[in-house]
Amino acid sequence: MERDIRSIVSQMTLEEKADMCSGRDFWHLKGVERLGVPEVMVSDGPHGLRKQNEKADHLGANESIKAVCFPTACATACSFDRELLRELGEALGDECQAEDVSVILGPAVNIKRSPLCGRNFEYFSEDPYLASQMAAAHIQGVQSKNVGTSIKHFAANNQEYRRLSCSSEIDERTLREIYLAAFEAAIKDGKPDTVMCSYNKINGTFASENHWLLTEVLRDEWGFAGYVMSDWGAVNDRVRGLAAGLDLEMPASGGHTDAEIVAAVKNGTLDEAVLNRAVERILRIIFKFADGRRPGDFDMEKHNRLAERIATESMVLLKNDGLLPLPKEGKKIAFIGKFAEKPRFQGGGSSHINSYKITGALEAAGQIPEITSKITYAQGYNVEEDRIDPALLTEAVRVAEEADIAVIFAGLPDAFESEGYDRAHMGMPKCQNELIQEILRVQKNTVVLLHNGSPVEMPWAGDVKAILEAYLCGQAVGAAQVRLLFGLANPCGKLAETIPLKLQDNPSYLNFPGDGQTVEYKEGVFVGYRYYDKKEMDVRFPFGHGLSYTSFQYSDLKLSRNQLSDSDTLAVSLKVKNTGDIAGKEIVQLYVSDLTGAANRPVKELKGFAKVFLEPGQEKTVEMALDKRSFAWYNTRIHDWYAATGDYEILAGASSRDIRLTKTVHFVTETQLPFHIHRNTTVAELLADERTAPVIRSMMTDLASDMTGGGDNSSEAASEAITPEMTLKMLENSPLRSFKSFSGLSEEELTSLIQTLQEAADTVR
């Protein structure tokens, strides 16, 4: 049924229109009964349905309905699997339909700037391309069920400390390339029904009233057509926010801000057309859901099996010195650590799911008939406080010593990371590190299995034989862990973030989380692997790293062309072969390296990936495509994406530091950068531009001679002191005005030279 939205809005009173722009309560939008506008509900997500019926709250203090807790984004991003994320979204969409929820709040795509951000477990990656691809697939899955999503938190919300008031100070290029790019592709490709603006300021202006962000970028550039809602309590000035593009304030305002909107329209400070447009956007999404209602599928057992499969695909085998997979029979294996019995599988705050069942590894191992090896258990540590319990430690060491293999289930307790506050450090609880070290004294065959929403320091990494990173992998975490440990499934996840050796290595270390008023993003575009690779720094485990129980061989990298321009697409193909003896999945990563030297850029950047399943001995061709954006950086001179003419290297690898194949392609841009020439333009700048280089190069010999005195009368000592090479280098760094001093140019001649160079620069190629 096609609705005439504008006609409905025209029949509303001014007060009714203003009322539509804030929530009825914590989770419901208002309706207008006389015009057939229904009330609809929104609910927290994004890795499960946190629907609250009574005593609603934002941070998860009050109980929600029983639901399925899927793996969190910190884990699912490691799957590098678009189809898996779409399937997750479809399940969430079904659950929302079954529970009459119109919009689920998520996914969250904020960049992992620092390992300390308390909400990193809810975010996908340090890399904007990976984050955008995972988010787009998630959105498409949910919205295929006619349920809306609300991509969040727009934008530059990369910490919890003073998140309601702190200003993220970011230069334009960094904002575009890193922090907005994760949203851009997800919004363009996924087309979410709503966008949730963040709490913080961006360069001094609250996101909730930032016209450049919410209208000029989001709508005018990216073509977003849905409505923008506030994060809960993020509104600073309601009228200013509405004018900037903030359509819906959440939660309810008690009518106070609605009255402010009415007053602003009446006194002429707010154009009623702005209000009408906001209401139209809200109604369009309300009716899209209401008119497209369909039966929902909330089969929790079915979705629990999906949660287990997603967890299995997402966990990352970080290290394996031949100890894994564990023998299914004939051995005595010690499971040590509280998380083996009661796993940590999700984060705290607004995304906390009231899981209908939770399976730990200890329980799961006893339910799998194939596993006949004897499993023993010791708690090892307390999760309530970071204190060594001598009795628990002694018992754990004894159990480990009596076993053939020890598996330590370790990680971060709930109190270490949550929405609302950032981590104080990157360490694990000291009692757990002590437990690992003590067990290593008596048991050399030790595996560490981690439960955490963000990287941890691993002082014992070189001593244990295997490390399995489970992140926060949802309610079926234990079943997935056991399948991977015992080889019933083959690990295939890869890191969506770098794990540094220590916190101090992180590029944001000196500028996180700021002074409470502002936080400066001084590391610029060098976030995560972009920084570590540029600095050639050792890391614990690099971005994209992940092991398998089989091995893969890459070969035959092919490019569809040797040269391309702005409008061309480059097709890339290569062959991947399973050279081991069991089936497995490989994640092929495609990076681009700019060799032109036109800008200070990362050594390489992820621009494509594909996940491929291979039987033993099987070989498949993997294909990906790169367009101009894959080669481009954000040029603030033209306020647009720009790829310079020159060579670019295409790199295919198993991780950011395991590059297997490379080829070079030549890019020719049709974009001509503006070049304003003035008295202080240097010779080097003129030589670097192909339009002005011939003009200035023709003058170089004479200018160099003038600077050294020239002629045959130069002394031998002077010639030794100032070589021609030195003169040319000095000349390159000289501004045009220096020619008056060294070459005797008059002011009029200098002006004429600048004019000649400017005419050359303005020449259209």
TrEMBL record:
<dbReference type="InterPro" id="IPR036962">
    <property type="entry name" value="Glyco_hydro_3_N_sf"/>
</dbReference>
<dbReference type="InterPro" id="IPR017853">
    <property type="entry name" value="GH"/>
</dbReference>
<dbReference type="InterPro" id="IPR013783">
    <property type="entry name" value="Ig-like_fold"/>
</dbReference>
<dbReference type="InterPro" id="IPR026891">
    <property type="entry name" value="Fn3-like"/>
</dbReference>
<comment type="similarity">
    <text>Belongs to the glycosyl hydrolase 3 family.</text>
</comment>
<dbReference type="InterPro" id="IPR002772">
    <property type="entry name" value="Glyco_hydro_3_C"/>
</dbReference>
<protein>
    <submittedName>
        <fullName>Glycoside hydrolase family 3 C-terminal domain-containing protein</fullName>
    </submittedName>
</protein>
<dbReference type="GO" id="GO:0016787">
    <property type="term" value="F:hydrolase activity"/>
</dbReference>
<dbReference type="Pfam" id="PF01915">
    <property type="entry name" value="Glyco_hydro_3_C"/>
</dbReference>
<dbReference type="InterPro" id="IPR050288">
    <property type="entry name" value="Cellulose_deg_GH3"/>
</dbReference>
<dbReference type="Pfam" id="PF00933">
    <property type="entry name" value="Glyco_hydro_3"/>
</dbReference>
<dbReference type="Pfam" id="PF14310">
    <property type="entry name" value="Fn3-like"/>
</dbReference>
<feature type="domain" description="Fibronectin type III-like">
    <location>
        <begin position="586"/>
        <end position="656"/>
    </location>
</feature>
<keyword id="KW-0378">Hydrolase</keyword>
<dbReference type="InterPro" id="IPR001764">
    <property type="entry name" value="Glyco_hydro_3_N"/>
</dbReference>
<dbReference type="InterPro" id="IPR036881">
    <property type="entry name" value="Glyco_hydro_3_C_sf"/>
</dbReference>
